[in-house]
Amino acid sequence: MSELFNSKLCAICKGRKLLCGRPTCPILERFRVARNVEQKLNKRHLFGSSPPSVFVGEYGYPKVRIGPLVPPIEGKTDYLDNPLKWENKTIKDILYYRSMLVMGETKADVSVRKSGRILSEVQELAMSVKPVDSEILLRRKPVLKVIPSEFAPPVGPKAELLDFELTENPRIPRRTDYVVSDELKAEQAIMRLYNWGFDEYYIIRLLSAGLLGVDKRLVPTRWSITTVQDTIGKNLRREILHYPEINDYEVYFYRFMGNRYTVLLMPETYAFELLEVWLKGSLFGAEEPRVIHDYEDFRGRKEYVRETAGAYHAARLSVLEALRARRRQARAVVFREVTPEYYAPVGVWQLRLGVKKAMGNPIGRFETLNEALDVIRRRLEHPFERYLQRSYVLGALARQKTLDEWLGNVLT
Questions:
Q1: For the chain, is the Cβ count within 10 Å smaller at the N or the C terminus?
Q2: Which residues form the Archaeal Nre N-terminal domain (predicted)?
């Protein structure tokens, strides 16, 4: 099924027969979550502790929808919007957390100089590293809508914002104040914060809220995620090119939230490729699943990622961080297989974390490429020959003598 919902199939199934092949109905799951939180959100005036969290939409750019996300509860709420705390959570947990965050949205020009008091309050919220008590007044009661996205985590209930106010002082680090007030280019600001130890999700929030760069502008959340991960990745790539190559062929594997991640590292000059398959019965899977891919060599990419989009930058960053920690370089191929267990998209953070966990879970080291590929082939659910047909990195190697014998065994 190539779409999230198939009206004809869903009408027959009604969520009971699971005709789509998924372990749970994504439509009914969202209704269950909405029912669990609707009593707490059934009002126009909300007071609570924002994780902190803000969201900037992309529709209508350069006039975009922006707003704070505030839950109807007080106290330690950072777990509601912090992927670093979701390692052991389920998809249902994530849907519930996001459904607790009410977005009061208002329209704003991306040029922050043209915006007023509410944006200033939102920016103060974005800079905080601790939850901030906040108050929002909405035009009507918030409504939860199902908007599938592979990029940002699911958006919770929302309604038009009439007023927003911080009711306590946000906790803002001195280094954040320094970077925001200094005339730094966005790339410089991102890398300075990253090297100081600020996590990327905090940096994404600052960029999205129009706090980084010389010409400060609001950046849609989806774009901010890709921009920050791509910027950090490019800088790490330039660094690891000065390191020696690894010595063996290495295979890593991890299963996370219905996604299977297999990573192959080869003792050669740096290159990276992501091979992705949405298996039959998965969220965006088709009757005949196809392999999509994107790659780069040591020179990087000169154009936008065409097929795997934000997933590419998330996976690449996790591999590059692992190589940087070892002070080594390698040629890397990541295989992502999405199973029916991944019944609702929760954002590329799960891919970022899934590959990161894979890099900490080695399957083995091998003297030859053939041995490594044999192990990988046995772990993949999709036919390995189809990966070879689409892969630039493995396809190039397949034309070399080192793979001739192995391919002959696999394809006969």
A1: C
A2: 19-284
Q: Which two tokens stand for residue 271?
A: 């290159």
For residue 335, the one-letter residue type is F
How far apart, in whole angstroms, are the C-alpha atoms of residue 109 and residue 66? 9
| Number of alpha helices (DSSP H) and beta strands (DSSP E) in the chain | 14, 12
Tokens representing residue 150 in the block: 């592979």
Cα gap 198→207, rounded to integer Å = 13
Tokens of 195: 């090297």
Question: How far apart, in Å, do the first and last CA atoms of the chain sit?
Answer: 31
Q: What is the pTM of this model?
A: 0.88
User: What is the b/e burial string over 167-196, where b = at least 16 CB atoms within 10 angstroms of the residue's CB?
Assistant: eeebeeeeebeebbeeebebebbbbbbbee
Antiparallel, parallel or unpaired: β 259-266 and 249-256: antiparallel
DSSP string, 1-33: --SS--HHHHHHHTTTS-TT--SS-HHHHHHHH
DSSP 301: -
Q: Is 161 helix (H, G, I), strand (E, B) or coil?
A: strand
SS3 label, residue 395: helix
d(CA 148, CA 283): 10
β pairing state of 271-278 and 331-338: parallel
Does a cis peptide bond (omega within 30 degrees of 0) precede residue 52? yes
Mean pLDDT by 10 residues, the chain (412 residues): 47 59 63 60 90 94 94 93 92 88 93 84 97 96 70 80 96 96 95 97 97 95 96 98 98 97 97 95 82 95 91 97 98 96 89 97 95 95 94 77 56 58
Q: Residue 107: name the closest of 173, 75, 63 by CA.
A: 63
